[in-house]
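Field: sequence (string)
Field: structure_tokens (string)

Example rows 1 and 2, in order.
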Amino acid sequence: MIPVPRFTVALGTVPTHPITQRYDLPVSPFVTGCITGAMVLLVALAWPGVRRPRTSPLPVVESWRNGLSPLVVIPRLLAVALLVVAIIAGRVGADDDLENIAPALVVGLAWPVLVLASVLLGPVWRWTDPWDSAARVLTRSHPGDGPGSVWPAAALALPWFWYLSAYQYPLAPRSVGLMLAVYSLVTVAACLAVGRVRWLSTCEPLGIVLAWIALLPRGRLPDWEPPRGAEALLGVVAGGTLFAAVRRSELWAAPNSAERATLLATLGLLAFCAVGALAIWCLAIVAGSRSTRPTVAQAVVPAVAGIVVAVAMDRNRLTTSLQLLPGLLGDPFGLGWDLLGRPGAGLNPAPLGASGLIAVQLAVATAGYLAGAIVLARSVRRGERAPVAVGLSLLCGASAIALATH
């Protein structure tokens, strides 16, 4: 169970609320949320100009599309090897998350680093997707199989975020190995059953979202035509990720100490995912015109990327994994090989400090929302931006409060 402080109110004192207290920032989480939300609203409404739209929708560079060049095959083989090592290490290696490569590689690094790399470099997942690589060897897809509704991916994302956000021991090596093995088997088996392209383009949430995020560095999000269910998938990813931050904050202190903490966390996760999906869907409805509605999903994509990276930094998980990885690569199973140095030697558990960590998290999350505001401004005329701009502003404020209440 996650240890949390209990608050007591002495006689004669005024009771406080988590969002109005000061933690490691000069102002309260509520004020922080107001400031960041106002910044996003200002940029969304004031950013000049509308870019000339394309005459046809922009194709997304997904991992499953077309053939693979020899240059792509090499990093894919490395990704498959790392996947196999992580599964084996998680299941039979050292049962210590600081001496086993699986937690640091899969939970600590893979998810946020892939998102960050997609933001900075583009379609990184096409160069690394291990499940598509395995499925290509075992099955062939018909050329006519293509992307459709991604509603199934929104549903299949729930177990993934339950493990990351609601499960009590996401860094336990045995749990990481089991989760990774089950997800890999289900994904490859489904590719065999229904077709590689069909499954990966409609049901595999990780690859779908990474392909969308990869449009950001090339400035091509305004030309992207979101598929059916895009708002639901983005809402589940945003809600599920933010719940991880909330569960580790003072806002969830009482449920964490309850007898059925995991059940309450599961219900909380479902509620957050439902609210996230509903909020983005309502923004799309309020957007009004048929030409404006796709910009909601376009604007939310960079916001989701910022949320994922910011929450991954919580409790110094990302920085700790980066420091552990070199040594763990030399001894992935915790057998004492010491080929690249001992894992954890010279580890700095809090390199940014408490205040610095929260400040960087808020900066990353806010940068994602600001990028979303610019995407909105490049696609919609000033007079039509207000509903979506206000929605982005409120989502940014809520995200800042969740991150700051630690």
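Row 2 begins here:
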Amino acid sequence: MIRLFKLFPVLSLALILFSCDAISQKKSDVRKVKLVAPKGKAIAAFAEGCFWCSEHIFESVVGIDSAISGYAGGNVPNPTYDLVNTETTGHAETVLVYYNPQIISYAELCKIFFASHDPTTPNQQGPDRGSSYRSILFYNGPTEKAIAEQAVKDISTSGRFKKAIVTKLKPLTEFYRAEEYHQDYIEHNPNQGYVKAVSMPRFELFKKTYKGRLR
């Protein structure tokens, strides 16, 4: 007879290794988002692993109105979650951030980006592996490109990471809003295994690392 306590380490490991790409509701309501910010606002996009946690992190910062989970950086129109997870579309899980530039700058958003994930692991973030989890700083125009380049230089020379930064810089040309069940996933599913084992520890680490204003 197998005693239950012997199963606990196995169950715990399963929760930790349970990746963001293991869930699909086989329903596609993906749509392309116009990259136009409301009056007085601005937009920016970041890919840094599973978008559930990225969305939660960015929305915790003062000056950010909202964040949308979705897909960017690929070459296939109308990508679905299942298709992106085949790692054949070129897309990365990405968050589109709507923010108030009078309160927070794009340069500060880049600091949030580097404070909220490990930019030294190519095609991986935590237990999630594949090109859809790669680290990408998206930019709009030459000014933001220069800011993004400086942000990479700053983090590379900061001494925070021992390994080389693998973050890529790409222009933001298209963004697809992910299926509705992905939006505000942590808020709606706080007790889900991956959220408890991976997302929330990552969020707690961010709060200790980031020096800016949180809600």
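free_text_note (row 2): Helices lie at 8-17, 51-58, 81-84, 106-115, 141-157, 185-188, 193-209.
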